[in-house]
Amino acid sequence: MSTESFKAILEKTQRVEGMTTPFSIAVIDALLSFQKKQKITGHILEFGVYKGKSAILLREHLGINESLVLVDIEKYIDDSTLQLLGPETKFILGASKDLKISAINFESLIKKIRFLHIDSSHAYRTTIDELRLTESVLSPDGILCMDDFTNLNYSQILPALYKYLYTEKTDLTVFLVTNEKAYLCRRAYFDLYANYVLREIVAEVAQSAHQPMAIARTDMDIEYAAFYLRPKLEDESSEFYGKNIYGDMYINASPRDMLFAIPRKFKWRLFSS
Length: 273
Ligand SMILES: C[S@@+](CC[C@H](N)C(=O)[O-])C[C@H]1O[C@@H](n2cnc3c(N)ncnc32)[C@H](O)[C@@H]1O
What we know:
Elements: H1 3-14, H2 22-37, E1 43-47, H3 53-60, E2 68-72, H4 79-85, E3 89-93, H5 99-102, E4 113-118, H6 124-137, E5 138-147, H7 157-167, E6 172-177, E7 181-186, H8 190-209, E8 213-216, E9 227-231, H9 243-246, H10 255-261, H11 264-271
Parallel strand pairs: 1-2, 1-4, 2-3, 4-5, 6-9
Antiparallel strand pairs: 5-7, 6-7, 8-9
Helix pairs in contact: 1-3, 2-8, 6-7
The structure holds S-adenosylmethionine.
S-adenosylmethionine binds at residues 18-20, 47-50, 53-54, 71-74, 76, 95-96, 119-121, 126.
């Protein structure tokens, strides 16, 4: 997405009161633009709409034959905003966990959602329910974006996510975290998205957010190898955190590639708990 188009999107989102920050708008915009470049298609779903700030951003990225499905337990969004979002946008009044019954045609959403934004109550049980639902609707190459992942006012999100990831049958994995959100994909697509984060997202978000960015990865395990994206600190010389110590973490995006690159005798460390 060009800087000019991003500026126009940002301005549109700023006309509506809401919680999604310009930084997260830039990150989501970058990821949705990357999906477009990769020809990844599908519908977009949001749990927790409020007045429609993030929905405006999501709507901007809809392609041909794609719909935006918005779910909220309250109708805070104005009819004028819904009208602006166009006929491709469907608003469903109801709790996220009831989507299977409240969506007119739930079957058409199964494995067809390429981007899901979870930004609802952030309650522990609701988050687990939403993750279970993600499993059935997220497309094989889709992204799940979880809001307030590191906001400790909602500290229950962290245990809910990791209980789900490590105790239930799932192929979801985290590929990116920020100070605001966690981004997950299915394991088979980790390499694609992690490669994009490693090689491109820093420059793209820096350009949209008008702020230098950096990424950090200080461990790379076959079970967890996500990157952290954040504004670059004033005294940081590299856009890779701790490059002199953790340089190996920034050579390959995938922990599997690292397994082939390192001497055999060290491989056991990647699997040790
Ligand atoms: C933080 S706001 C969403 C902010 C919005 N995404 C934005 O960019 O401004 C949370 C929204 O979640 C809704 N909500 C709370 N519990 C919910 C649930 N169980 N299912 C669906 N929506 C829910 C609230 O009504 C509220 O509108």
